[in-house]
Amino acid sequence: MLDIREINEKIERESAFVDLLNLEIGKKIVGQKYMVERLMIGLLSNGHILLEGVPGLAKTLAIKSLATAIDTKFSRLQFTPDLLPADLVGTMIYNQKKEEFIVRKGPLFANFVLADEINRAPAKVQSALLEAMQEKQVTIGENTFILEEPFLVLATQNPLEQEGTYPLPEAQLDRFMLKVVIGYPTKEEERLIMRQNLSNEIETVNKVVAVDQILNARQAVRLVYMDEKIEKYILDIVFASRFPKEVKLDKLAALINYGGSPRASINLALASKAYAFIKRRGYVIPEDVRAVAHDVMRHRIGLTYEAEAENITTEQVINEILNAVEVP
Q1: pLDDT tens, 119-143?
Q2: Cis ω on the peptide bond leading into residue 122 (within 30° of 0)?
Q3: Of 66, 86, 259, 261, which is most buried, counting CB atoms within 10 Å of its CB?
Q4: Which residues lie closer than 8 Å to 172 by C-beta, 6 or more apart?
C-alpha cells in the first residue's frame, strides 16, 4: 500500500495534463467550467455522461472539443425517430466477389461517441447503445467485438420539446454515471461568445493529450485514498434516498418513489475520487462528495405523483438529504 504522501505525489504528476486539456478546450468553450469539469470526471472514471440543457449551450461543441484535444477516434450520431440499431452498431453486407457476408462496423466503434438528442430515437436504438455502454462490446451476426478503450458515450437531451421523444427508462438512465444539467452563460460570458463567433480568427483545438495518459490517469484515480468515514458518508447519502425516515426526513417519505441503486454508491465514490484528482489531491474530502452528489443522484431518484403535484424537484430532495446526513 502507498502512503498518503506517495499518493499525493503520484496524483500531482499524473494530473498535470488536466490544466493543459482545460486550456485547449477553453479555446472553443467560453465559461461552462462546470460542464467541462463533469466531462473530465466521466473521462477519468470511465463513466458515461448525459447532458441536459436547452439548445445552443455548446453541449455538442464541448464534447467535440474534448475528443479533438485527445488523440482518439470520435463519432457523432444524430438520433432521429427513424434510426435503426444497425445504423449504430453496423451490419452484415454481402460481398459478391468473395461470395460471403462481411461485417461493416457502425459509428459506435469509436473512443468518444456523441449521441445527440438521445431521447429522439425509439427504445430499440437506445437499448443497442446502452448495451454497448454496459458490456463494452457489440455483437453483429455471429461476431462479437470488444470496444476499444477508452470508450465513452456522451449523450445530450433537450428538456424543452417533448413531442416525438422517447424518454429514457429509469433502468437505462441508471447506466449513465452522471446527469449534468446545464444553465445559461452569464452576460459577460455571452459577450465573449458573441465576439468570438463574429471574429475572423477561428481558434482550433489541437491534440494535446495521448490515450495512454488518460488510461494511466484512470488507474491513478483508483489509487486516490478514501477513508472509511467518507465511505460511510457516501452510503448514508444513498441510503437516505431509499429510507428517508432513518435520517428523520419523514416529509420526504411521501415524495420519493424509489432511491439510488447500488450503482449510485459506486459512482458517487468514483466521481468523488475523480474530482479529488482534478483538484490534484491524493485523498477524498466530504466537499468532493457534495460537489458531485447532485450529478450522480439526480437521475437515480424517482419522485411520486404527490411530489410532482407540489412541484418538488429531485434537486430539492438531494439538498434536503445532504443537509440532513451528518458530515464526517
Answers
A1: 888 888 887 887 788 888 888 877 8
A2: no
A3: 66
A4: 126, 127, 130
Report the distance separating Cα 52 and Cα 180, nearest Å: 6
pTM of the model: 0.87
- Nearest CA to 263 out of 111, 133, 148, 118 is that of 133
Q: Tell me how far the alpha carbon of residue 3 is from its chain's centroid.
A: 30
Tell me phi and psi for residue 231, to 5 degrees: -60, -45
Rounded Cα distance between 173 and 50, Å, is 9
Q: Which helix (H) or strand (E) holds 179?
A: strand 178-181
Q: Exposure of 302 by Cβ count < 10 A (0-12 exposed, 13-18 middle, 19+ buried)?
A: middle
- pLDDT recorded at residue 65: 86
* pLDDT tens-place string over residues 39-60: 999 999 988 999 888 878 888 8
Angle subtended at Cα 180 by Cα 183 and Cα 267, rounded to the nearest 5 degrees = 155
Q: Provide the CA 269 distance to its chain's centre, in angstroms.
A: 14
Q: Which residues, listed in sequence order, are joined to residue 256 by a DSSP beta bridge? A: 303
The position carrying cell 452498431 is: 89
